[in-house]
Amino acid sequence: MTPEIRDLADGDWPSVWEIVREVVQARETFPYDPDMTSAEARSMWVEGASGRTVVAVFDGKIVGTAKMGPNRPGPGAHIATASFMVAAAARGRGVGTALCRDAVAWARSAGYAGVQFNAVVETNRAAVDLYRREGFDIIGTVPRSFSHPVHGRVGLHIMFLEF
Predict the structure, then answer these.
(1) How do the pLDDT tens digits run along the chain, 163 residues long?
(2) Where does residue 48 rank: exposed (0-12), middle (13-18), buried (19+ CB within 10 A)?
(3) CB burial class (10 A; 0-12, 13-18, 19+) of residue 123?
């Protein structure tokens, strides 16, 4: 079953914060401070007017979230970026795929020329494989730039989908 993807509502933040905290504190997939507060996370995750923040909902429960917007300002604003987080209990159920497809569709409809992911941890095989299935290419890898709690220093892929 495909989750419902909808824009973030004001009352959604406590559920989104649970997911963000879980993912960031695991230290396996995002280069964010694992000690960040809810307020710090909210200011980083909730996009302003030029972007969009969404949630994925299964059976009335928020199980994932994504943020998307321009990758860079000014001359780089024609390329979008996006980030995705899925609750551990919901992984492997198509939530990440649904969020990725929604972000790509949003970027296309907003007139972007492509989508760039700036920091995909190379050991996050589920994400790398998902993005490749959706048409993204690895265009570069910054070696040993992410400190993984199990694998040590691993690379961060830059992945790109041109429209």
Answers:
(1) 789 999 999 999 999 999 999 999 999 999 999 999 999 999 999 999 899 999 999 999 999 999 999 999 999 999 999 999 999 999 999 999 999 999 999 999 999 999 999 999 999 999 999 999 999 999 999 999 999 999 999 999 999 999 9
(2) exposed
(3) middle
| Residue 93 and residue 102 in contact, taking contact as beta carbons nearer than 8 Å | no
The identity of residue 143, as a single letter, is P
Domain spans in the chain, listed from the N-terminal domain onward: 4-162
What is the side-by-side order of every strand in the sheet holding 52-58?
4-7, 52-58, 61-70, 79-86, 114-121, 152-162, 137-148
Q: What is the CATH number of domain 4-162?
A: 3.40.630.30
Token pair for 49: 């007017």
What interhelical angle do 38-45 and 13-26 show, nearest 10?
A: 100
CA distance 31 to 50: 23
What does the block give as tokens for 43?
């200011």
| Pick from 29, 87, 93: nearest CA to 63 | 87
